[in-house]
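*** Fold description ***
***
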Amino acid sequence: NTYFSWALNLAALLACCCAIEAGAASAEAPALQAGLKALGIEEGYQIVVAGERDIVEDTAAQMMQRFLARASIDASIVTESEAAGEKQFLLGLDSNHKAIRALGDKGDINIQDVSPEDDGFHLKQIGTHIVIAGANPRGVLYGVYAFEDFIGAGEQGKLDSKKVPYYRKRGTGLYLTKVGFGAPLDAIPEEMAIYLAGRFKV
Protein backbone atom coordinates (compact mmCIF):
# COMPACT_ATOMS: atom_id res chain seq x y z
CA ASN A 1 0.00 0.00 0.00
CA THR A 2 0.97 3.67 -0.25
CA TYR A 3 1.89 4.09 3.41
CA PHE A 4 4.09 0.97 3.35
CA SER A 5 5.87 2.17 0.22
CA TRP A 6 6.42 5.61 1.76
CA ALA A 7 7.89 4.04 4.88
CA LEU A 8 10.25 1.88 2.83
CA ASN A 9 11.38 4.87 0.78
CA LEU A 10 12.00 6.90 3.92
CA ALA A 11 13.99 4.07 5.47
CA ALA A 12 16.07 3.77 2.31
CA LEU A 13 16.72 7.52 2.29
CA LEU A 14 17.81 7.52 5.93
CA ALA A 15 20.12 4.57 5.30
CA CYS A 16 21.64 6.40 2.35
CA CYS A 17 22.19 9.56 4.41
CA CYS A 18 23.83 7.57 7.19
CA ALA A 19 26.12 5.86 4.69
CA ILE A 20 27.13 9.20 3.19
CA GLU A 21 27.82 10.67 6.63
CA ALA A 22 29.85 7.62 7.63
CA GLY A 23 31.82 7.84 4.40
CA ALA A 24 32.57 11.51 4.96
CA ALA A 25 33.71 10.85 8.51
CA SER A 26 35.93 8.03 7.31
CA ALA A 27 37.52 10.28 4.69
CA GLU A 28 38.01 13.07 7.23
CA ALA A 29 39.79 10.96 9.86
CA PRO A 30 43.23 10.67 8.17
CA ALA A 31 43.50 14.45 7.73
CA LEU A 32 42.55 15.09 11.35
CA GLN A 33 44.92 12.37 12.54
CA ALA A 34 47.76 13.94 10.56
CA GLY A 35 47.05 17.38 12.02
CA LEU A 36 46.93 16.03 15.55
CA LYS A 37 50.01 13.88 15.06
CA ALA A 38 51.95 16.97 13.95
CA LEU A 39 51.38 18.24 17.51
CA GLY A 40 52.28 14.86 18.98
CA ILE A 41 48.67 14.08 19.83
CA GLU A 42 47.74 10.42 19.51
CA GLU A 43 46.19 7.89 21.87
CA GLY A 44 46.53 8.19 25.63
CA TYR A 45 45.27 11.73 26.12
CA GLN A 46 42.83 12.83 28.81
CA ILE A 47 40.62 15.91 28.85
CA VAL A 48 41.11 17.42 32.30
CA VAL A 49 38.48 19.76 33.75
CA ALA A 50 38.10 21.47 37.11
CA GLY A 51 36.31 19.71 39.92
CA GLU A 52 33.87 22.62 40.26
CA ARG A 53 32.86 24.02 36.85
CA ASP A 54 30.12 25.55 34.76
CA ILE A 55 27.87 23.55 32.45
CA VAL A 56 29.44 25.40 29.50
CA GLU A 57 32.83 23.98 30.46
CA ASP A 58 31.31 20.49 30.47
CA THR A 59 29.98 21.14 26.98
CA ALA A 60 33.40 22.36 25.82
CA ALA A 61 34.99 19.16 27.13
CA GLN A 62 32.38 17.04 25.36
CA MET A 63 32.94 18.96 22.13
CA MET A 64 36.67 18.31 22.40
CA GLN A 65 36.05 14.63 23.13
CA ARG A 66 33.80 14.31 20.11
CA PHE A 67 36.29 16.12 17.87
CA LEU A 68 39.09 13.76 18.91
CA ALA A 69 36.77 10.79 18.31
CA ARG A 70 36.46 11.94 14.68
CA ALA A 71 40.19 11.22 14.46
CA SER A 72 39.68 7.84 16.17
CA ILE A 73 41.25 9.08 19.41
CA ASP A 74 39.42 7.95 22.53
CA ALA A 75 39.99 10.60 25.22
CA SER A 76 38.27 10.36 28.58
CA ILE A 77 37.02 13.42 30.47
CA VAL A 78 38.33 13.51 34.03
CA THR A 79 38.64 16.03 36.84
CA GLU A 80 42.03 17.25 38.06
CA SER A 81 41.94 14.88 41.02
CA GLU A 82 41.37 11.93 38.66
CA ALA A 83 43.96 12.89 36.05
CA ALA A 84 47.01 10.72 35.45
CA GLY A 85 49.92 10.87 33.04
CA GLU A 86 51.43 13.74 31.08
CA LYS A 87 49.20 13.69 27.98
CA GLN A 88 46.45 16.11 28.85
CA PHE A 89 44.08 18.69 27.42
CA LEU A 90 43.63 21.24 30.21
CA LEU A 91 40.25 22.98 29.86
CA GLY A 92 39.03 25.57 32.31
CA LEU A 93 39.42 28.92 34.01
CA ASP A 94 42.25 30.47 35.97
CA SER A 95 39.78 30.78 38.83
CA ASN A 96 38.79 27.10 39.08
CA HIS A 97 41.50 24.99 37.41
CA LYS A 98 44.62 24.63 39.56
CA ALA A 99 46.93 23.55 36.74
CA ILE A 100 45.83 26.45 34.54
CA ARG A 101 46.27 28.89 37.42
CA ALA A 102 49.79 27.57 38.03
CA LEU A 103 50.68 28.03 34.36
CA GLY A 104 49.30 31.56 34.50
CA ASP A 105 51.31 32.38 37.63
CA LYS A 106 54.46 31.20 35.86
CA GLY A 107 53.66 33.27 32.79
CA ASP A 108 53.31 30.26 30.49
CA ILE A 109 49.77 31.31 29.58
CA ASN A 110 48.28 34.78 29.62
CA ILE A 111 44.62 34.94 30.57
CA GLN A 112 44.72 36.61 33.97
CA ASP A 113 44.70 40.08 32.41
CA VAL A 114 41.46 39.39 30.48
CA SER A 115 38.22 40.50 32.09
CA PRO A 116 35.74 37.74 33.00
CA GLU A 117 33.19 39.91 31.19
CA ASP A 118 34.96 39.07 27.91
CA ASP A 119 34.82 35.70 26.18
CA GLY A 120 38.57 35.52 25.66
CA PHE A 121 40.79 32.46 25.64
CA HIS A 122 44.41 31.43 25.42
CA LEU A 123 45.05 28.23 23.45
CA LYS A 124 48.60 26.95 23.74
CA GLN A 125 50.64 23.77 23.57
CA ILE A 126 53.04 23.43 26.48
CA GLY A 127 55.03 20.22 26.20
CA THR A 128 52.56 17.36 26.03
CA HIS A 129 49.77 19.56 27.37
CA ILE A 130 47.21 21.39 25.24
CA VAL A 131 45.91 24.26 27.35
CA ILE A 132 42.61 26.00 26.70
CA ALA A 133 42.25 28.69 29.34
CA GLY A 134 39.11 30.82 29.21
CA ALA A 135 38.44 34.19 30.78
CA ASN A 136 34.96 32.79 31.38
CA PRO A 137 33.24 29.48 30.53
CA ARG A 138 32.22 30.60 27.06
CA GLY A 139 35.85 31.51 26.39
CA VAL A 140 36.78 27.86 27.05
CA LEU A 141 34.27 26.77 24.42
CA TYR A 142 35.64 29.28 21.91
CA GLY A 143 39.11 27.90 22.61
CA VAL A 144 37.90 24.42 21.66
CA TYR A 145 36.48 25.83 18.42
CA ALA A 146 39.85 27.50 17.73
CA PHE A 147 41.67 24.20 18.29
CA GLU A 148 39.32 22.45 15.87
CA ASP A 149 39.95 25.21 13.32
CA PHE A 150 43.72 24.90 13.74
CA ILE A 151 43.67 21.16 13.10
CA GLY A 152 40.96 21.21 10.45
CA ALA A 153 42.74 23.89 8.41
CA GLY A 154 45.98 21.90 8.43
CA GLU A 155 47.85 24.67 10.21
CA GLN A 156 51.55 24.17 10.76
CA GLY A 157 53.88 25.48 13.41
CA LYS A 158 53.42 26.62 16.98
CA LEU A 159 50.03 26.33 18.64
CA ASP A 160 49.74 29.55 20.63
CA SER A 161 46.66 31.73 20.14
CA LYS A 162 45.22 34.30 22.52
CA LYS A 163 42.02 36.01 21.41
CA VAL A 164 39.58 38.39 23.07
CA PRO A 165 36.25 39.48 21.59
CA TYR A 166 35.95 43.14 20.75
CA TYR A 167 32.17 42.87 20.45
CA ARG A 168 29.97 41.28 23.06
CA LYS A 169 26.32 40.51 22.58
CA ARG A 170 24.32 42.20 25.29
CA GLY A 171 20.89 41.58 26.77
CA THR A 172 19.93 37.97 27.44
CA GLY A 173 23.28 36.38 26.54
CA LEU A 174 23.81 34.61 29.84
CA TYR A 175 20.28 33.25 29.86
CA LEU A 176 20.60 32.00 26.29
CA THR A 177 23.92 30.37 27.16
CA LYS A 178 22.45 28.49 30.09
CA VAL A 179 19.50 27.32 28.04
CA GLY A 180 21.52 26.46 24.97
CA PHE A 181 24.07 24.36 26.77
CA GLY A 182 21.39 22.28 28.41
CA ALA A 183 20.51 21.08 24.91
CA PRO A 184 22.22 18.40 22.79
CA LEU A 185 25.72 19.28 21.60
CA ASP A 186 24.60 20.19 18.08
CA ALA A 187 21.97 22.61 19.35
CA ILE A 188 24.24 25.55 20.20
CA PRO A 189 24.01 27.75 17.09
CA GLU A 190 24.33 31.07 18.90
CA GLU A 191 27.73 30.33 20.40
CA MET A 192 29.10 28.84 17.20
CA ALA A 193 27.71 31.70 15.13
CA ILE A 194 29.37 34.30 17.34
CA TYR A 195 32.68 32.46 17.14
CA LEU A 196 32.50 32.03 13.38
CA ALA A 197 31.69 35.72 12.97
CA GLY A 198 35.35 36.33 13.78
CA ARG A 199 34.67 38.95 16.44
CA PHE A 200 38.04 38.53 18.06
CA LYS A 201 41.25 40.51 18.34
CA VAL A 202 44.72 39.17 19.16
Q: What stands out?
A: Confidence is low (pLDDT under 50) at residues 17-24, 169-187. The chain has six helices and seven strands. The CA atoms of residues 40 and 106 lie 24 Å apart. The longest helix spans residues 2-38.
